[in-house]
């Protein structure tokens, strides 16, 4: 078993994820895994970094596929005995002009952004080594979507006692409510992406609380963040930040020094803790 520290970035064959891997290759003292659902796209991205003189390793990971997540888990357990840095970056967003019915957009978006990210956490968080760092890439869209929720929902999503099961029930209810076309009546905002990212931010707050309760002595720091508005296939060419600039906050959180005890359980953008 290798004693080398290991970092994993989900959805990193392009966009912000690729830029996070690039920065970690330069700054993280260990093995950095670029992961992708499609091995061809993943290997091509590894080759691109190699041309830049950087050495990333590859492992397949489709966060929609529990078998794929578990294969990565078993690989990390066997080869490294755990994991030092996990960046949950993989995500999807329908374009504004997309005419796919809203209920389908809700189901598909929540499946990857919330349920897929949660499944990765369920399988990989138990592997986190002491002083591990976990970064869940959310979005400012989570804050604005929170503002668009009913007072009752806002109270639940800001609660310091909400459980993961309760959050899963709420995310499931959103999808069900869109199918019945009652989501607005039920207090939800009209954004599937925004609600999926509420899920990611609230999940991060819950996970940090659980780490405090169950693994306090391990000094693991876990946060959600927004990379900013970044020029990628998701956000388009008009966005102000380059992918490397978008990687700055996630990488800052992934590399918080071992003597840091904060931020933890926060929503961070531009390296600054935001009020949730
Ligand atoms: P992007 O260029 O579209 O890249 C998304 C990445 O996620 C791709 O590598 C994609 O792989 C991967 N992915 C999607 N579904 C996956 C799955 N089921 N399993 C594994 N990988 C999957 O988007 P981006 O702008 O870099 O976004 C990265 C993260 O930042 C997302 O979580 C996004 O919500 C968040 N974010 C972005 C912005 C922005 O302005 N760009 C702002 C706020 C938050 P494929 O190539 O196979 O599709």
Automatic annotation (TrEMBL):
Family matches, as Pfam families: adh_short (PF00106)
Entry keywords, A to Z: Cytoplasm, NADP, Oxidoreductase, Phosphoprotein
Compartment annotation: Cytoplasm
Class of this enzyme: oxidoreductase
PROSITE patterns xref list: ADH_SHORT (PS00061)
Gene3D superfamilies: NAD(P)-binding Rossmann-like Domain
The protein's name: carbonyl reductase (NADPH)
Organism: Menura novaehollandiae
């Amino acid at each position: 078993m290798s004693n080398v520290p290991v970092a994993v970035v989900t959805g990193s064959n392009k966009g912000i994820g690729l830029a996070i891997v690039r920065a970690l290759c330069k700054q993280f003292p260990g093995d950095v895994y670029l992961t992708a659902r499609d091995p061809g796209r993943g290997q091509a991205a590894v080759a691109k970094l190699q041309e830049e003189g950087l050495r990333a390793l590859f492992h397949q990971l489709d966060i929609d596929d529990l078998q794929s997540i578990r294969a990565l888990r078993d690989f990390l357990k066997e080869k490294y005995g755990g994991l030092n840095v996990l960046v949950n970056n993989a995500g999807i967003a329908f374009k504004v002009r997309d005419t796919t019915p809203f209920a389908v957009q809700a189901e598909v978006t929540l499946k990857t952004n919330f349920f897929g990210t949660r499944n990765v956490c369920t399988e990989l968080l138990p592997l986190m080594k002491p002083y591990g760092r976990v970064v869940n890439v959310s979005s400012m869209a989570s804050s604005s979507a929170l503002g668009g929720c009913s007072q009752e929902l806002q109270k639940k999503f800001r609660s310091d006692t909400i459980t993961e099961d309760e959050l899963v029930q709420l995310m499931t209810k959103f999808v069900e409510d869109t199918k019945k076309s009652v989501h607005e009546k039920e207090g939800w905002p009209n954004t599937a992406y925004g609600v999926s990212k509420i899920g990611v931010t609230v999940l991060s707050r819950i996970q940090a609380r659980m780490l405090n309760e169950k693994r306090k002595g391990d000094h693991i720091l876990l946060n959600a963040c927004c990379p900013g508005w970044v020029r990628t296939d998701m956000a388009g060419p008009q966005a102000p930040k380059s992918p490397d600039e978008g990687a700055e906050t996630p990488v800052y959180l992934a590399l918080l020094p071992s003597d840091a005890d904060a931020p933890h359980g926060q929503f961070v953008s531009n390296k600054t803790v935001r009020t949730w």
